[in-house]
From TrEMBL:
<dbReference type="InterPro" id="IPR014729">
    <property type="entry name" value="Rossmann-like_a/b/a_fold"/>
</dbReference>
<dbReference type="GO" id="GO:0006425">
    <property type="term" value="P:glutaminyl-tRNA aminoacylation"/>
</dbReference>
<dbReference type="InterPro" id="IPR042559">
    <property type="entry name" value="Gln-tRNA-synth_Ib_RNA-bd_N_2"/>
</dbReference>
<feature type="domain" description="Glutaminyl-tRNA synthetase class Ib non-specific RNA-binding">
    <location>
        <begin position="128"/>
        <end position="216"/>
    </location>
</feature>
<keyword id="KW-0547">Nucleotide-binding</keyword>
<dbReference type="Pfam" id="PF03950">
    <property type="entry name" value="tRNA-synt_1c_C"/>
</dbReference>
<keyword id="KW-0067">ATP-binding</keyword>
<dbReference type="InterPro" id="IPR020059">
    <property type="entry name" value="Glu/Gln-tRNA-synth_Ib_codon-bd"/>
</dbReference>
<dbReference type="InterPro" id="IPR049437">
    <property type="entry name" value="tRNA-synt_1c_C2"/>
</dbReference>
<dbReference type="InterPro" id="IPR007638">
    <property type="entry name" value="Gln-tRNA-synth_Ib_RNA-bd_2"/>
</dbReference>
<dbReference type="InterPro" id="IPR007639">
    <property type="entry name" value="Gln-tRNA-synth_Ib_RNA-bd_N"/>
</dbReference>
<dbReference type="InterPro" id="IPR000924">
    <property type="entry name" value="Glu/Gln-tRNA-synth"/>
</dbReference>
<feature type="domain" description="Glutaminyl-tRNA synthetase class Ib non-specific RNA-binding">
    <location>
        <begin position="10"/>
        <end position="125"/>
    </location>
</feature>
<feature type="domain" description="Glutamyl/glutaminyl-tRNA synthetase class Ib catalytic">
    <location>
        <begin position="225"/>
        <end position="524"/>
    </location>
</feature>
<dbReference type="InterPro" id="IPR001412">
    <property type="entry name" value="aa-tRNA-synth_I_CS"/>
</dbReference>
<dbReference type="InterPro" id="IPR050132">
    <property type="entry name" value="Gln/Glu-tRNA_Ligase"/>
</dbReference>
<keyword id="KW-0030">Aminoacyl-tRNA synthetase</keyword>
Length: 737
């Protein structure tokens, strides 16, 4: 209508297209009339000018706009003459004259266009192209047959495969072990996120008259630094899903030379325990990250209370007496106390603080409707539970909906990174900061990371512990981070797994074997080799080649002997796996049997069965064998591992804790997740044997037991007996795919 009043009923096509694009691309409709005026008056004539205008309006959200500054930014009134275009194209062609004459029409003409347009920003693109074509034709003449031939493709040199570069993780996420791939993803993500101080450029961000002044103060405090935070509740142990959150928050800060806070959301004193605070920080540091600062929501209780009073004074919050049951669900009845006088709510809120209301008798609620339709979320509730840090100073505690955004504001967080389920709280996040006229960060959401064949809910893990299905939160069959560490998963493998999952907005549900593959990759490089026998069979060498036992040098990493050796004693008595011997050979069987010798790994000898000794029930108890040096014996079909003068140890072999992919899904497991526990998820080998090279190993030290898998020393180990957890097998079990 505005354009028709200026131009009459007949709009030309070019102007109509500009108007349509302006209306559809302009996010802040308050500036639409201003922009339409320039198009209608033919002061903005091209899509290039329109793009510049939209960028300007996005960067200047507040009224009044500086018209002169706007016009300069959009090229209003700038007239580029044909002579200027001719001179600019001539200068560009002169610069590339030698290449043009050499390559003729195979030269990249787009380069000429780009350079010419950069010299004359507001020139008409078609006119520039015509001038480039004309001057090139004048220089080169008409195309010849050679010019019309397709340029032969040059074979691309295949990149040499190298190991993924590692970078060290330092303080604030600037040094430990982390593959570059995650950092590259997060740097890429930075292109989609706003720059510090440019929060207003984010779609949906609410701009108030105070926004620009608050952002200016924010930049003065932070110096334009990226700030993120990882805000766990200290009421349970972190799990594999939290690993993605840790990597995303700390990793994004690291990738953009910023800092990340570890902030405990300790607003529910009933469920918080000191052990959880300690375990959370331990796991963050175990994954290779050092927080910029460790803070608590409770650090800000006084400020949060002061702001709650201010919210009431501004008419944006009220004290309500509806019961919890009444306000649950999607369509609860509106509160009859929503419009109570401000002074009355102030007095009642003070009574709440003084303990004059029982639990559930009064709450402070905020006057807003959230995206999911939830009306007037609770800001404060009464709880007569001493707080682990503030003691009995408070009997009212703030909720997540009230606390989260305000703590972000206090700490001047630039990017509040949350999982997707918090998207419904984004508008309330903006609303509360703006209602109090405080700095408002930007909330960004990403997809959760879930794993099949497990449960991570705190309540369900507690049930597993109570029923004896697992020992504790760090039982190696669980997917809490403490459990994965105890099982022997290296932190680098977990970080690499998060990188492979990617920085996605969609929820990712992954198979455990993909995580295990990352573990194998890391342990193959990190875990020194040793030999262990789980089901020993005694073997006596009747022609032992020396008068007494001697040591054999075994490489720590057979593929790279420069990484050192360890000694293993070699005696006339050795022990092999029961499964490495058969009295009768099947087709394809390559290990030890009568008439079929095998080599002993690293010993330099081949053994052949001479005599089989059995007990009364016919079970093979011992083999008597002869040995021959490998360099004179026929090459055996196989080499097997062995131990001699070994240590007795306990080995724990783990399988999946649950039988079905989704143990919490009633359709898949009608009897509930407890009914789905795998009875064979743990097998304990009490008297396994391991070579003496592991004698001094401390808890969490990792080894590859040759031909068996990767193992880690369990904290249950004593000076008298080591305990090993099998971390993963050497190869993926095809049945797990």
């Amino acid at each position: 209508l505005q354009a028709q009043r200026a131009l009459g009923p007949a709009l030309d096509k070019a102007t109509g297209t500009l108007l349509y694009n302006a209306a559809s691309r302009l996010k802040d409709q308050r500036h639409l009339s201003f922009l339409v005026g320039y198009i209608a008056r033919k002061q903005i004539l091209t899509d290039l000018q329109l793009g510049a205008a939209l960028d300007y309006l996005k960067s200047h959200p507040l009224e009044p706009l500086d018209a002169a500054d706007f016009e300069q930014a959009c090229g209003v009134g700038v007239c580029v003459t044909p002579e200027q275009i001719e001179e600019a194209v001539e200068a560009v062609i002169s610069k590339h004259r030698a290449e043009l004459l050499a390559e003729r029409y195979h030269f990249n003409m787009g380069l000429l266009m780009g350079e010419a347009r950069s010299r004359l920003r507001w020139a008409d693109g078609k006119t520039v192209k015509n001038e480039v074509d004309l001057q090139v034709l004048h220089l080169l003449g008409p195309k010849t047959e050679a010019d019309l031939e397709k340029k032969p493709k040059t074979a691309k040199a295949r990149p040499v495969q190298v190991e993924k570069q590692k970078v060290a993780v330092v303080e604030n996420g600037e040094a430990g072990t982390e593959t570059r791939s995650l950092l590259e993803q997060l740097r890429g993500e930075a292109l989609k996120f706003h720059k510090p101080g440019e929060n207003y450029k984010t779609e949906g961000y609410v701009v108030t008259p105070n926004t620009m002044a608050l952002l200016k103060q924010h930049l003065a405090i932070t110096g334009g630094q990226v700030r993120t935070r990882f805000p766990p509740e200290p009421n349970g142990i972190l799990h594999i899903g939290h690993a993605k959150a840790i990597n995303f928050n700390f990793g994004y800060a690291k990738a953009n030379s910023g800092v990340c806070f570890l902030r405990y959301d300790d607003t529910n004193p009933e469920k918080e325990e000191e052990k959880y605070f300690t375990a959370i920080r331990d796991m963050v540091e175990w994954l290779g990250y050092q927080p910029y600062a460790v803070t608590h929501a409770s650090d800000y209780f006084d400020q949060l209370y002061t702001w709650a009073l201010e919210l009431i004074r501004r008419g944006q919050a009220y004290v309500c007496h509806q019961k919890v049951e009444e306000i649950k669900g999607h369509n609860p009845p509106p509160s009859p106390w929503r419009d109570r006088p401000v002074e009355e709510s102030l007095l009642l809120f003070e009574d709440m603080r003084k303990g004059k209301f029982g639990e559930g008798e009064a709450t402070l609620r905020m006057k807003l409707v959230m995206e999911d339709g939830k009306m007037d979320p609770v800001a404060y509730r009464v709880k007569f539970t001493p707080h682990h840090r503030t003691g009995d100073k408070w009997c009212i505690y703030p909720t997540y909906d009230y606390t989260h955004c305000l703590c972000d504001s206090i700490e001047h967080i630039t990017h509040s990174l949350c999982t997707k389920e918090f998207q419904a709280r984004r508008s309330s996040y903006f609303w509360l900061c703006n209602a109090l006229d405080v700095y408002c960060p930007v909330q960004w959401e990403y997809g959760r990371l879930n794993l099949l064949y497990t449960v991570v809910s705190k309540r369900k893990i507690i049930r597993l512990v109570e029923t004896g299905a697992v020992r504790d939160w760090d039982d190696p069959r669980l997917f809490t981070l403490t459990a994965l560490r105890r099982r022997g998963f290296p932190p680098e493998a977990i970080n690499n797994f998060c990188a492979r999952v990617g920085v996605t907005v969609a929820q990712a549900t992954m198979e455990p074997h993909l995580l295990e593959a990352c573990v194998r990759e890391v342990l193959n490089e990190q875990a020194p080799r040793a030999m262990a026998v789980l089901e020993p069979l005694k073997v006596t060498i009747t022609n032992f080649p020396a008068p007494k036992a001697f040591d054999v040098l075994v490489p720590n990493f057979p593929a790279d002997e420069s990484r050192g050796f360890h000694k293993v004693p070699f005696h006339p008595t050795v022990y092999i796996e029961e499964t490495d011997f058969r009295e009768e050979m099947d087709k394809g069987y390559k290990r030890l049997a009568p008439g079929q010798p095998v080599g002993l790994r690293h010993a330099g000898y081949v053994i052949a069965v001479q005599n089989i000794i059995k007990n009364a029930s016919g079970r093979v108890m011992e083999l008597e064998v002869t040995c021959t040096k490998s360099d004179v014996a026929d090459k055996p079909k196989a080499f097997i591992h062995w131990v001699s003068e070994p240590l007795v140890c306990e080995v724990r072999l783990y399988e999946r804790l649950f039988l079905h992919k989704n143990p919490e899904d009633p359709a898949e497991v009608p009897g509930g997740f407890l009914s789905d526990v795998n009875p064979d998820s743990l097998r304990v080998v009490d008297n396994a044997l391991v070579d003496r090279s592991v004698l001094s190993a401390r808890p969490f030290t990792k080894f590859q037991f040759e031909r068996l898998g990767y193992f880690s020393v369990d904290p249950d180990s004593t000076e008298r007996k080591l305990v090993f957890n099998r971390t993963v097998t050497l190869k993926e079990d095809p049945g797990k795919a």
